[in-house]
Amino acid sequence: MLEIYLKECLYFTANRLSRVITKMADEEFAVSGLSPTYAFLLMAVYEKEGIAQKELGEILHLQPSTVTRFIEKLMGKGLIYNRVEGRLSLIYTTEKGKALEGVINECWNSLRSRYAAILGAKEGDELSLYLDQVSDRLENIE
After folding, report:
1. Interatomic CA distance for residues 88 and 108, integer angstroms
2. What is the mean pLDDT for each group of 10 consecutive residues in the chain (142 residues)?
3. Which of 2, 54, 68, 127 is least buried, going by the fewest C-beta atoms within 10 A?
4. SS (H, E, C) 52-113
5. CA dist list (Å): 3 to 12, 14, 16, 36, 95
6. By C-alpha distance, which of 110, 142, 134 is closest to 17?
7. Helical packing angle, 64-76 and 36-47, nearest 10°
């Protein structure tokens, strides 16, 4: 009976999926020397140099304190820097950070290829989009 409850429990199955995909992502991003989340933060900065710290949090669905901690860590590694303009903290990549862009993109592509080989490319993309929609709905309840 418990097995049925666990399979029908969104909390349990979402956490199980999270553990599995996190392990895969950690393995694929290891070559970059960064965790996947740090790499995704850098990807957002690559896309928009001078991005506001607040916008990074919104894009990555992270709390401001978490974004601050990640930024401090990446600054400590010499990969990004911030410039304060008025009340905004704008984030830019350093040359060292820019040099990782190709490696990070390879890691991202490798991760997507890895789970696509198991799930199928279409199914992997559809699952990701569906989980994003569900997360949006669950986050926006009051």
Report:
1. 29
2. 87 95 98 96 96 94 94 97 92 97 97 96 95 91 66
3. 2
4. EHHHHHHHHCCCHHHHHHHHHHHHHCCCEEEEEECCEEEEEECHHHHCCHHHHHHHHHHHHH
5. 11, 15, 13, 31, 51
6. 134
7. 90
Amino acid identity of residue 133, one-letter, is: Q
State both tokens at 81: 């820097």
Q: What is the pTM of this model?
A: 0.87
Q: What share of the chain is helix, strand, coil (3-state, %, to 5)?
A: 75, 10, 15
What phi and psi, each to the nearest 5 degrees, are found at residue 87?
-95, 0
Q: Which residues pair with 89 in a beta bridge?
A: 84
Under 8 Å between Cβ of 101 and 112: no
Q: Exposed, middle or buried by CB within 10 Å (0-12, 13-18, 19+), for 55? A: middle
Query: Residue ranges per domain, the chain?
Result: 19-139
Reply yes or no on domain 19-139 having CATH 3.40.50.1260.
Answer: no
End-to-end CA distance of the chain: 32
